[in-house]
Amino acid sequence: MSNFRPNGHTSVKKNRKERKRPANKQTKPTALSSDIDLLLEQVRDLKIDGDKKRLIKIDEKSEEILKVMYPVFSVDVTRFINFLLTRFFQDHPELIDEIRKSFKKL
User: Fold this and answer.
1) How far apart are CA 22 and CA 79, in angstroms?
2) What is the pLDDT of residues 19-30, one digit of tens each?
3) Other C-beta atoms within 10 Å of 48: how many?
């Protein structure tokens, strides 16, 4: 996946200089389903409040996907992870309640 280029361009190195070559015009990109398009648009539109940074470890499979999110879908990885966390906490409010209860006990 590390050699992937957006918009169908491939890089060709010749004499230590890199030049871009357009992809074959006969190939057409496959259309994404409307559900995926809607989801990606929601991720792109997500507003991130705050400037806190956190170092996290990502497994190899997820990293391969994350590193092509922006070139392929124009989705920033930070927005994508924030979107996933927001969705997860919305889908599991009991987790937030349990954290609050445990915090009060400390």
Assistant:
1) 30
2) 444 444 444 445
3) 13
